[in-house]
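Input.
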Amino acid sequence: MMKPELVEQHITAMTTASGNLLRQMEDEGLRYRVTVRPEDTGTLHVHVRELTPELTQRIERCLSGMGMQVAVREA
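Output.
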């Protein structure tokens, strides 16, 4: 269990890190939003406009090394 005072720092760090990893895809036109919920700090929730199966796979591969589960959904 994560200490309550570290939850916000963790959320900020994971959101920033995922944005850095997805930057190339964003430059290619990917439109997305990443959230990490305080009650589930082990999952990156990625909401994507115009999601395709290929984009889902690419996003999952891109974020797979972060040590978090990745949940990709249509925005």
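Strands lie at 32-37, 40-48, 69-74.
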